Amino acid sequence: MTKRQIHLGLFILGTGSHVAGWRYPGAFDSFQDLASIQEIGRIAERGKFDLIFMGDNLYADPAAHPSYTLRLEPLTMLSALAVTTSRIGLGATASTTYGDPFSTARAFASLDHISNGRAAWNAVTTSNATSGANFGREHPDHSLRYEIAEEFVDVVKGLWDCWADDAIVADRASGLYIDPAKVRALDHDGKWFKVKGPLNIGRAPQGRPIVLQAGGSAPGQRLAARTADVVFSVVQDFAEAKAQYDGFKALLPAFGRSPSEVTMLPGVMPVVGRTDREAFDKLKLLQSFVSGTNALQILSDRFGTDMSAYDLDGPVPDLGENDAYHAFAKVMLAKARRENMTLRDLYNLTAAARGHWVLCGSAETVADTLQHWFENGAADGFNVMPPYFPAGLDDFVDLVVPILQERGLFRADYEGTTLRDHLGLERPERM
Amino acid sequence: MTKRQIHLGLFILGTGSHVAGWRYPGAFDSFQDLASIQEIGRIAERGKFDLIFMGDNLYADPAAHPSYTLRLEPLTMLSALAVTTSRIGLGATASTTYGDPFSTARAFASLDHISNGRAAWNAVTTSNATSGANFGREHPDHSLRYEIAEEFVDVVKGLWDCWADDAIVADRASGLYIDPAKVRALDHDGKWFKVKGPLNIGRAPQGRPIVLQAGGSAPGQRLAARTADVVFSVVQDFAEAKAQYDGFKALLPAFGRSPSEVTMLPGVMPVVGRTDREAFDKLKLLQSFVSGTNALQILSDRFGTDMSAYDLDGPVPDLGENDAYHAFAKVMLAKARRENMTLRDLYNLTAAARGHWVLCGSAETVADTLQHWFENGAADGFNVMPPYFPAGLDDFVDLVVPILQERGLFRADYEGTTLRDHLGLERPERM
């Protein structure tokens, strides 16, 4: 049996995960430019990452951080990237609240065909209420969004299975192209969706594209435990990560799934230097680029409350939970209480990685920490969120990845061709 | 002033426009295979076509012709094709009945960025009523679909203009990424759509991507005259094409547009040989592959009536018009009456090109006919619908295009880089 291996996802949101990463000397400062994305794809594939994964929002606030506002649409962008990469998985975010299951199932099946089995759907319920106004709809509340999402994901998976693998015959001699006996309608008639099917594209190379999820709430975890192949999590330290990991894996048996069936990847923003000192200098420089307005706005967005009303040098206020309150808020607040932070401390933490774990140090320090988490039940791998591109990713790929490879913790090369292969998942039989 | 030039679109629907084109020796028989599409893209670009244009349907009927049932999703497919082509325009069909304006505007703006200004949206209202069942909705009737489409197209164009060309500042020194004064919301609040905006992607390289339309009905023509840059039409002979051309161009002044602002491209299925004889032999071979079931089904779909009830060797029945009745039905019925066709004759005509004009002959014959139409007020160019791929397209590119080029009727090479350049259209100012 092969030694258990670390899995690596690369998270891309706009100009990098640090709020002011685009201001770093030499950093890419446009994410409407395909050439930048292609370069990122090449670096990630050189680093043998399992997948690239595009964040998304469905609204623009020109006063906010550019990463929240401007981007290429994920599915078109990943389709273009499918052509300039050959092995890495390609994950796009698509909403269960503002999309429809037929179009979603179809687009991801198409990406899977285009990429020869590398597509992944990051199913999100869309937390930001502003999005509704772009679709002429009231933004559903949290529990309703998850109720809808449960049905949405089932419909998409059902549509992916309408065609048998051998339904397309294409027999020139007889003229039979499709064997109708091997294609079935879905005839879904549920509370939220009525979808007849079949889908108008044949079964995907992966059988079903990979499903990613990141929900941190109880309904989000339940949805992920029932339907996801890969889960991203938001954590700030080892104890929290381990508790989340154990808690999530414990949910799986109730859905007839084994803990190894779902890959759990905590998000981490690595700031890597050749020495700890060099890494800390990079982070310091990054932090010097932060604008107070942007940082407060992200904080307000994460907490669902206007934070500009509070004293920056006073204690972090007691806000209570609300519907727009993210998983981020919970872990950041816990950390703030543990460390007696002022609001200014919290704002600096948020600015760095928008609430994700910042891991700053030499390549050895970073590799040691990742190994510790991986080997002690806190992670199956990591969702790597470089502060800026391309150097922030180059540092990780050129300095950290080789150490993990030398230690036998991470693949030296891809062994399979599909994302399922990279994740060690079987191609599913048609349901 | 340059001599007026022919414009060429390449229409792709599944395995070719002939109902049984996939059975032709050597023809591609899969359109879920990106390599086939890439090869088609390379040939079309070698032929200096203005654009490739993907047809679409939103349902699958496994008993029907494969071109109607199976395909890669157009936007993901064209995004992949954007990377392996450099000049040719990329048009995808998207529905105004089953899509939403925000997602549509965003996806086409993204394709325009990805392709450096080569995106085109073929706005369709989706005629086939079966589609509704995949979206949990009643299929709206024809006039309602066009009422919705009028507003949908306006919203999309408005979203494309939310960002000024110079709204993205990305000034590292000051930290200003976006100039909020150069971005505006749309605040559309209409009968069918409420869309706040702004779009979450900057203004497209073409300013606004090109809009294509193919509506043959009076409401379809009106929508096209008001909003389209390129119009596809369905005709069976010169007189009909000229009447349609004159009729359509006459609509433009009422919308403040000049006749040269909209490029009109009748659809044509060319079957080209080195001699007329060779071409007719190809068509005969193609027709020998037709299955009666498929041909009758397409005929029934085009006429919105089950045609299997009628005597094949009797006269074409008098059906009256109905809501599912296509522009195709009108031109085919007119031809059937003119030529005293039996239902079998009509079915053979339908099988050949699904109701489009079939132009069969030597390269000289084909070039002469296209030139005649172009120079005598029946066309600004042609929407070329090869019966099968790749040889059906190779024949046109290698045999017909050089004749048109020698005669100074068609570009020897691309002169600009965007689809607007190819069409001779200015980049529009922000409204």
Can you tell me about this structure?
Two copies of one chain form a homodimer. By secondary structure, chain A is an alpha/beta fold. Chain A has a domain of 299 residues: Luciferase-like domain (TIM Barrel, Alpha-Beta Barrel). The first copy, chain A, is 38% helix and 13% strand. Chain A contains 13 helices and eleven strands. In chain A, the strands form two sheets. Chain A has an eight-stranded parallel barrel, surrounded by seven helices. In chain A, α1 links the parallel β1 and β2. In chain A, α2 runs parallel beside α3 and α3 packs across α4. The longest helix of chain A has 19 residues. Chain A is globular. Chain A starts with 6 loop residues before the first strand and ends in an 8-residue tail after the last helix. In chain A, 57% of the residues are buried. The mean pLDDT of chain A is 92. Chains A and B meet through α2, α3 and β6 of A and α2, α3 and β6 of B.
Overall geometry of chain A comes to globular
Level-1 CATH class name of the domain at 7-161 and 196-271 and 356-423 in chain A: Alpha Beta
Mean pLDDT over the full residue set of chain A: 92
Distance between the termini of chain A: 29 Å
Q: What is the count of β-strands of chain A? A: 11
Instruction: Identify the quaternary structure here.
Output: homodimer
The CATH superfamily name of the domain at 7-161 and 196-271 and 356-423 in chain A is Luciferase-like domain
Major sheet details of chain A: 8 strands, parallel, barrel
- Beta strand % of chain A: 5-15%
